[in-house]
Structure formats: structure tokens, C-alpha cells
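tool=predict chain=A
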Amino acid sequence: MKIGAIEAGGTKFVCAVSDEQLTIVAREQIPTTTPAETMGAVISFFQKNPVDAMGIGSFGPIDVAVNSATYGYITATPKVGWRDYDFLGTMKKAFDIPYVWTTDVNVAAYGELKLGAAQGLKSCVYLTVGTGIGGGAVINGQLLHGFGHPEMGHMLIRHDPADTYQGHCPFHADCLEGLAAGPALEQRYQRKAQTLAGDDPAWTLEANYLAQACVDLTVTLSPEMIIFGGGVMKQQQLFPLIRQQFAQQLAGYVPTPAIDDYIVPVQLGDNAGITGCLLLAQEQLR
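tool=predict ok
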């Protein structure tokens, strides 16, 4: 029995095959170019490495409503060539197997819940802060979907009065992603985020915005853990700053788990998404 996984990102696709114990036996990284080129390489990989079920976590927005005419599509993405692309349908034409279809951040949240930082819990939120900001959630062991899927990076937050940067989101300007994603840091300070000193005041402002997101998620979803991943969050000095500002902003209104165990870094690193895909596909087979 073989299980397949696709973590489809805006920069690269990661394809993997595992055995029933989730030991990866084949893996390939494919650049995200055009659908014809990228998906051709993906299909070729799985033709060489056949699987019995597959989990797909895709960049979005995507359509996750099973009864929708465009279920399985990537929808209003700014990624050139991928708008209104029938991702799941393309895979189903190539391989007649069971699929799980959700977002790249949802699969990462699921991986962290089952085998990562949130192991043993029933709920968590995973936020990735990099080129964009995305969030996925598992509540009572189930991926969070509604009429669509969460777009946590676009929650509206309070713009710090001292921050003159207007935000870079083309839809909302100063939403969370518009103020706190990697490109916002780069445009605000005219340099790459990773070149900023660890004690630069830039990180205090960044922590303010990310702490606001944690407060919003806490009072809305009551997760047992909030997990941060993505390139920006490799700045470890952010975590104590976020926790401190979160405590101030929440102001003791609701109890939370111990703060150091509540707002934490991703444990599975770059493997969180692939792990979640494999786990979901495995459950689909069962």
C-alpha cells in the first residue's frame, strides 16, 4: 500500500510517496511554472511511483465546497496562469484513486496536530508568515472548512498609529498580510527582513501585528495551540515579543494555556505540509 502527497506552493510543488508507516520512499521538488509544465511533471512522478490514495494541500484560494461546480479548482489566485485551474480534476483524469483536497496551510496544521508541536491535542491553528500569510486550523480533530476555507492572512487588524506604511495587499492594503508578510517588511524598511538586526525595533512592530492575529484567533476559535511557520518566523526573537504583546492585548479576558506552550514555532519544519497530506490520505484509505 502506497500513499501519495502533493504540497503545492506558489514557488514549488513537493511530491512524495510513503509506505503505510509514513516512511517516505520517493520525493521530488518541482518548480511552479505553468500548469501544463508543472502538472505534467507531477503526473510523470506519480506514474513512476503509483499510489493508492493521495492528499493534496494547495496554495489558494481554492474551492473546497464538494457540491460546487468548481470544486477542486484553484480560484482567484494572483499566480499567473493558475487562476480558475482545475487542479483536482486534472489529477483525477490521470489517476482514479481517493483524494483529500484542502489548503497547504490546513495540511500543515494537520501534520503538526498529529505528529508535531500539537501532538496529543484536539485543536490547533497553524500560521505561516513568509511571502504571504496563510492560516489553517484543526478543530476537534477536523480540518476547518465552511463555505470555503480560512483566509487568516486577510483578517483586519489595528494599524499601529506610528506605522506610516500603508500596506501591500492589493485587496485590503493594511490587513495582516499587507502589514506583516515578508514583502511588507522589505518595502517598509527598504531591505530584506533577514538583514535586520535581531534587536531592531522592526521586530517589535511585527510582533504587535502577529500578536493581534493571535488574540483574534484565540477569542474566535479557542485553539489549544497557535503554531507559527514560514520564512519570517525563523527569526526566533519574534516569539518572546509576540507572547509579551499577546498577553498585554488579551488583557486577561479569557484563560489560555501557558503562554510559552500556546504560541510556538513549527516542529516539523518544511515537512509539516507533506506529513499532513500523507496522514489525510492514509485516513481516506482506512
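The radius of gyration is 19 Å. Residues 117-267 form a domain with the Nucleotidyltransferase; domain 5 fold (CATH 3.30.420.40).
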